[in-house]
Amino acid sequence: MDRRFGIIVALLYIYRAAVAGPGDFGATAANKAPAPGTAPAGMVWIPGGEFSMGAAMNGGGSCEMPMASNDAGPIHRVRVDGFWMDATAVTNEQFEQFVRSTSYVTIAERTPTKEEFPDAPAENLVAGSVVFAPTDHEVPLDNHLQWWSYVHGASWRHPLGPQSDIKGKEKYPVVQIAYPDAEAYAKWAGKRLPTEAEFEFAARGGLSGKTFVWGDEFRPNGKWMANTWQGKFPVKDAGEDGFAGIAPVKSFSANAYGLYDMAGNVWEWCSDWYRADYYKTLADKVAINPQGPDSPFDPAEPNEKKRVHRGGSFLCNDQYCSRYIVGTRGKGEVNTGTNHLGFRCVKSSRFLRARP
User: What is 1-356's CATH superfamily?
Assistant: First the structure.
């Protein structure tokens, strides 16, 4: 009798996952096959399976927070194969090993050309990158240029500009990384960048329809679960979670799959081109290993080629950008890094065609 009851419950679970339609969170059905061998160093096995991808306008769970955009819907069913994933974002010491081995020069360390950035002011055509600069007073939150600046000399070695460095920060995520930089590292490491679907499946850790990577409460039992912004944005990060700014990897608890910082700390590159309307094309089917649209388009900046960011960062907050909510999306021009943008890599259990 108990065995038959268990079978009925399992069948109902699978049925609920199968019939979930657009806008609904069906149950996550993880693959049961074991990991194919020993884990590569620093990586964990993500079993893959079928899940509901995206976020509802209230954040995807019970917690209502403002969204920076409405590009995370409709919720749709996706199936991904199992894969290995870096347990943490790539760190400064790991990226330094790559640079020493290959003599690679990142985009931020190269002098940009007018051909690459036709709309950029001449004074910005110098090697450097984008840095967050807190304001000294409260400002309206309708113009992000008030708190971002292009800083000459900013790079992964000098995340905030020439006056900064990464000494003693070997275990911090490497930042100021443009998409080609992340791709180059991944190729050197024998890995690749995750698809957006892989990142979300991994971030959810087997949970379904929850607001955050860890559940529906932002601070369960008063515990900080991710590195985000506290205080008045963009004036001052109060650092109530223990960090005003970026934090070392593994500073907060891992999710159910053993992955750290899948929300908060630094945004992470995904391999998909960004289109605000992409999910609408997947709404009436189960997408199998989706790799994103064939080309990018952001209606806010139609001439920019952008890839997807995931996870949010230490700048995310409930006043302006709450994209530490699982299922929400970010975006970035492929040749632009910032001091809150990094990446992690994955390794396929089988070959997946890379986007050109």
Answer: paralog of FGE (formylglycine-generating enzyme) (3.90.1580.10)
